[in-house]
Amino acid sequence: MATVKLSFSPAPVHVRTARLVGVAVARRAGVREDLLDEVRLAIGEACTRAVALHRQYGLADPVYVEMSDGGGYTVRVVDRAPIEAGLGLAALGPDELAKESLSEDALTTGVGFALLAGFVEDLQVRPVDDGVGTEVRMSWPAGRA
Amino acid sequence: MELSLATRAVGEHTVLEVGGEVDVYTAPRLRERLLELIDGGARHVVVDLGRVDFLDSTGLGVLVGALKRLRSAGGSFALVCDKEPLLKIFRITALDQVFPLHPTVDAAIAADSTGA
């Protein structure tokens, strides 16, 4: 099983790097070519969420990303924000999205979760085992182990 | 690819051509440009996503912000997009029911001009 680990300071400019590495490792792991756009978007959304939370809570800790290709391609994105995150967020309907009262941040968060849920068949969002934070775990089928 | 932004006028419409990647790092520049256009008096804005090869939730948030701002100013906002991967993003988020989406700039302007 090959594993690539990446940790980056919580700045928006590094999210693109995480996407590029994530897609390169996915391709190497044998993820189908037509799924790579979705892999790129999902890793970007998970990292964007983590960066936004670290900035919101003033955390300088790095965001941690781990990509592994044992029996499928799995990406874990770990943040250290002191919140209880889950997938309980209901998808926003078109009427709510267009509402004046919905802030851009709230809309972006809702849309980000909709994209994660829509593009990742095997998605888990759960507290980390050690300490404070949340792990977003995403898996895709991969051709070779 | 870096974000590229180019503006042109077509009649009373302002067309903003966006290229490259619109993400959490580049979206603030798109937001600034849209605000400049609206503050500068643009009321009918068409954003052409034809050369965009990546768009995330942050970019979508900026586009919705511009739509709301123009609507409340009595203006109009439309998107041009004919790439299936991007269209899928709009469908999954239900934003295809929020934005007027057109395959070409001409179609966007024609639909807006007839009030469609």
UniProtKB/TrEMBL annotation, chain A:
<protein>
    <submittedName>
        <fullName>ATP-binding protein</fullName>
    </submittedName>
</protein>
<dbReference type="GO" id="GO:0005524">
    <property type="term" value="F:ATP binding"/>
</dbReference>
<keyword id="KW-0418">Kinase</keyword>
<dbReference type="InterPro" id="IPR003594">
    <property type="entry name" value="HATPase_dom"/>
</dbReference>
<keyword id="KW-0723">Serine/threonine-protein kinase</keyword>
<dbReference type="InterPro" id="IPR036890">
    <property type="entry name" value="HATPase_C_sf"/>
</dbReference>
<keyword id="KW-0067">ATP-binding</keyword>
<dbReference type="InterPro" id="IPR050267">
    <property type="entry name" value="Anti-sigma-factor_SerPK"/>
</dbReference>
<keyword id="KW-0547">Nucleotide-binding</keyword>
<keyword id="KW-0808">Transferase</keyword>
<feature type="domain" description="Histidine kinase/HSP90-like ATPase">
    <location>
        <begin position="8"/>
        <end position="140"/>
    </location>
</feature>
<dbReference type="GO" id="GO:0004674">
    <property type="term" value="F:protein serine/threonine kinase activity"/>
</dbReference>
<dbReference type="Pfam" id="PF13581">
    <property type="entry name" value="HATPase_c_2"/>
</dbReference>
From TrEMBL, chain B:
<dbReference type="InterPro" id="IPR002645">
    <property type="entry name" value="STAS_dom"/>
</dbReference>
<feature type="domain" description="STAS">
    <location>
        <begin position="3"/>
        <end position="112"/>
    </location>
</feature>
<comment type="function">
    <text>Positive regulator of sigma-B activity. Non-phosphorylated RsbV binds to RsbW, preventing its association with sigma-B. When phosphorylated, releases RsbW, which is then free to complex with and inactivate sigma-B.</text>
</comment>
<dbReference type="GO" id="GO:0043856">
    <property type="term" value="F:anti-sigma factor antagonist activity"/>
</dbReference>
<dbReference type="Pfam" id="PF01740">
    <property type="entry name" value="STAS"/>
</dbReference>
<comment type="similarity">
    <text>Belongs to the anti-sigma-factor antagonist family.</text>
</comment>
<keyword id="KW-0597">Phosphoprotein</keyword>
<protein>
    <recommendedName>
        <fullName>Anti-sigma factor antagonist</fullName>
    </recommendedName>
</protein>
<dbReference type="InterPro" id="IPR003658">
    <property type="entry name" value="Anti-sigma_ant"/>
</dbReference>
<dbReference type="InterPro" id="IPR036513">
    <property type="entry name" value="STAS_dom_sf"/>
</dbReference>
